[in-house]
């Protein structure tokens, strides 16, 4: 009988602790606003923290997208908060914009990854660089593979144009949204 009572107490304490932790996260976690827009590439899920745009994703559904955000964040769908991002993306897809002017939040990346992404933001629309050219531009000429890995972790594709980086042999390389989307973006910009 004592063992049963002890087990019930453990279950109660465990459930109560989890509930209190969840309530604490809901009250103190960083806020992230999100929305989804339609694009020529399919649905684009957008997320922004207080510091700026932190994610663009080609997810199939909201649950998949939200699971990729900061697990401690308080998320709220808020189209008004993402309206400037949505507007600039619409202009881009209408060929009326080639460079984005948005605050970005890259805090979850390493300094190396941020350096790579900052460098590729300077690649003009309609041109492509190779992974090797990016490595040379950041002063790490032997880091082509690491550059590719950093680009694969780009949380803000399109706005940070990792689609403009290809292999030295002329192949497309990889792209988080799939190679068909990479081709579409390069065609839109006149690089293919």
Key traits:
globular, 192 residues, 7 helices, alpha/beta, 6 strands, four-stranded mixed beta sheet
First-residue to last-residue Cα separation: 75 Å
Structural class computed from helices and strand pairing: alpha/beta
**Tertiary shape:** globular
Helix content bin: 40-55%
Strand order of the largest sheet: 3-2-1-4
Tell me the β content: 5-15%
Rg from alpha-carbon coordinates:
21 Å
The biggest beta sheet is recorded as: 4 strands, mixed
- Secondary-structure element order, as H and E? HEEEHEHHEHHEH
* β-strand number: 6
Alpha plus pi helix count: 7
Average predicted confidence as pLDDT: 89
Which runs of at least 5 residues are low in confidence (pLDDT < 50)? Answer: none
Question: What is the structure about, briefly put?
Answer:
By secondary structure, the protein is of the alpha/beta class. The chain has helices at 2-28, 62-67, 79-93, 111-120, 131-137, 144-152, 179-188; strands spanning 31-37, 44-48, 53-57, 74-77, 129-130, 165-166.
